Amino acid sequence: MGKETSNIDKDLPYGYLLNYKSTATLDTGTSLMLVPIELYHTIERMVLFGKAVTQDVHGNLYTSCDLKTYRSLYLLVGSDYFEVPPSSYIIKNGRLNQCFFGIIASKGHDWLLGDVFLRNFYAVFDNRNSQVGLIPHKTSKSAVQNT
Fold it and tell me: Which of 56, 86, 118, 135 could disulfide-link to 70, CB 3.0 to 4.6 Å?
């Protein structure tokens, strides 16, 4: 799928809808969620706006651990929106009063959905039919909404 312009709706009371058509890879070996580079700074500004943020020498961002101050992200996958709650992308890491921001920019235009996304869902891989099924697991705080 080719890249198209992004559509991020900031006015939803429950979170941000990320409508961006491109390819995505589900990767159980990746801890973070990598987003297309052209969306990253918009997502970063929306999620971290008004919060104290520090950056380490590697470019990693650290911010408040107060999950009540963040909103969920909703990714359109196929015909459903999949929720990524703040408890997934704001990661406790041992830093005093700061958590790691678990979303980073990919080097291209594709998504790499690692543990930040996958920790909320059961994934069933059907290689024979080139399909993947996703459903929230019973302890997940995520939801799936139909379009």
Answer: 86
Least confident among 94-103, 109-118, 137-146: 137-146
* Domain boundaries of the chain, sorted by first residue: 7-146
User: Could you tell me which residues come within 8 angstroms of residue 49 by beta carbon, excluding any fewer than 6 positions away?
Assistant: none
Cβ atoms within 10 Å of 100's Cβ, excluding its own: 20
Residue 44's SS3 state is: helix
With 0-12 / 13-18 / 19 or more C-beta atoms within 10 angstroms meaning exposed / middle / buried, residue 35 is buried
**Ramachandran class of 28: left when φ > 0, alpha when ψ lies in -120 to 50, beta otherwise:** alpha
Architecture of domain 7-146: Beta Barrel (2.40)
